[in-house]
Amino acid sequence: MLALEIFAQQSSADTTPRILLALTAFVLIFGIAVVVMGRRKSGQSKVADAVEIVMPTATLDSSQVAAVGVREKLSRVRSTFSGAVANALIRSSITQETWDELEEALLRADVGVATTTRVLAPLRDLVKAKKIVQPSELLAALQSEMTAQLSNSARELNFDLSLNAPNIWLVVGINGAGKTTTIGKLSAQQGKLGRTVLMAAGDTFRAAAGDQLETWAQRTGAEIVRGDDGGDPSSVVFDGVARATAKKIDLVLADTAGRLQNNSNLMEELTKVRRVADKGGGKVTEVLLVIDATTGQNGLVQAKQFSLATQVTGVVLTKLDGSAKGGIVFAIETELQIPVKLVGLGETIDDLVAFNAGEFVAALFA
Questions:
Q1: Is 91 helix (H, G, I), strand (E, B) or coil?
Q2: DSSP class of residue 92?
Q3: Sign of the dihedral through C-alpha 323, 324, 326, 331
Q4: What burial letters (b/e) apply to 248-262, b meaning 16+ CB within 10 Å?
Q5: Cα dist. 249→206, 224, 240, 241 in Å?
Q6: b (16+ CB within 10 A) / e for 185-208
Q7: What does each of the 366 residues of the chain score in pLDDT, given as a tens digit?
Q8: What does the alpha-carbon distance between residue 79 and residue 176 come to, in Å, rounded to a whole number?
Q9: Which of 157, 174, 168 is nearest to 318 (CA)?
C-alpha cells in the first residue's frame, strides 16, 4: 500500500507540469487564432468600404456629373417652377384650371407673356385633338416644347482663327450685373485654351472697376491697358487693341461703362466704343451682354436697349443659381433672338459655364 501511495504521488508530480504546459499552449494557439480572424474580418471590411466608395464614381460619366451639378445649383428656380407645375397637374383630368395654373407658373418664372402663349398654344391643340389626355402626358409635352423653344440657337463663343489680328470681345451691361467678374473668368478659361489675353479697362467712370480688372489680370496672367479715371472709354479700348496687335495677343476683353440702360448718353457712348473697336487692328467677334438673372423681366428691357446700341451677339446670365426667375432665358431667346451663351452658377471660375438648353429645362422639371 505504501508503495502504491508513493507511486501515485510521483505520477501526480510528473503529470502536473505537462498539464500546465498543455493549457498554456492551448491558450496561446487560441489567442493567435482570434487575432488572425480579427485581421481577416478587418481586411474584408476595408475592401467592402473601398468598393462602396469607388462604385458610384465608376457609374457616373462627366455629363451625368454636370447634370447633377446644374440641377443642384438651380434649386431656387427649380423649386419655384416645378412646384407650381406639379400643383397644376394634380387633377385627374386636364381642365381649364390646369391651363390657368400652368400659365401662372410660367409667368411667375419670368418666361414672359409672349413666350408663355407660344409654349402653351401647341399643347392646347394636342389636348383638343385628344392626342394628350392625361396630365402626366401634358407634363412631358410641356418639357419637350420648352426645350424646343431653345434648341435653334448657336451658343459657341465666336473666335475667328483665320484673323491675323486680335479677336475683340466687348462686354456690356449695367453696373452690378457682373461684367468685371465675367471678364476675369473668361480670361482664365481662354488662357486654359492656350490663348493670350489682354484686358481693356473701358469702364473709366466707376472708381473701382480698373482696380478690380487689374486684380483679375494678375490672377489669370493677362495683360491690361488702363486709362485715367473719367477718361474716354473709346480711347482705352483703342489703345488696348493697338497694344494687342503690336504684341500679337490673341484676344482683347474690353470692359465698358455700365450706368442704367435708359441713360441715353451711355447708349451713345457704347455705340462709339463699338465703332472705334472695329476701326483698329482687330475685329469685334463677340458683344456679350451680362445680365443679372435676379432682375427678371427687366433683363429683357436691358437686352433690347444694349442690342440696339452695340449689336449684342450673346448673353451671359449671371447669378442664375440665386434666382427664382430663370425663365428670362426663354424671353431673351425667343423674343429677341439673342442666344444665351454662358450662365453663372456660383462664385468660382469654373462656375461660369456654357449654357445647355436641354440640361437647363431638365433641371427645371427635376
A1: coil
A2: S
A3: negative
A4: ebbbbbbbbbbeebe
A5: 27, 11, 10, 9
A6: bbbbbbbeeeebbbbbbbbbbbee
A7: 433 343 334 444 444 445 444 555 554 555 555 444 554 444 444 333 332 222 222 332 334 434 445 667 666 666 667 777 877 778 788 999 999 989 988 888 888 898 899 999 999 999 999 999 998 899 999 999 999 989 878 899 999 999 999 999 999 998 888 999 999 999 999 999 999 999 999 988 887 888 999 999 999 999 999 988 888 899 999 999 999 999 999 999 999 987 655 566 888 889 999 999 988 889 999 999 999 888 878 888 888 888 888 999 999 999 887 765 678 888 888 888 899 999 988 888 888 999 988 888 888 887
A8: 26
A9: 174
Please name every residue paired with 198 in a beta bridge, in sequence order, or none if there are none: 223, 252
Return all residues near 157 (Cβ < 8 A) that are at least 6 apart: 169, 286, 314, 341, 342
Assess contact for 297 and 331: CB atoms under 8 A: yes
* Opening angle at CA 236, ends 235 and 237, nearest 5: 90
Q: Which is it for strands 352-354 and 223-225: parallel, antiparallel or unpaired?
A: unpaired
Please report the DSSP string for 263-278 in residue order. Answer: -HHHHHHHHHHHHHHH
Query: For residues 309 and 262, is the Cβ–Cβ distance under 8 A?
Result: no
User: Tell me, what amino acid is at 285?
Assistant: T
Cα distance between residue 299 and residue 10, in whole Å: 108
A 10 A CB-CB count for 141 gives 16
Residue located via cell numbers 488702363? 226
CA distances from 38 to 26, 30, 31, 46, 126 (A): 18, 12, 11, 12, 67
Q: Which amino acid is at 35?
A: V
Distance, in Å, from the CA atom of 251 to the CA atom of 214, rounded to the nearest integer, reads 16
- Residues 79 and 290: their CA atoms lie apart, in Å, by 25
Q: What are the DSSP E strand ranges found in 150-212? A: 167-172, 197-200
Instruction: List the Cα angle 92/94/95 in 5-degree steps.
Output: 110
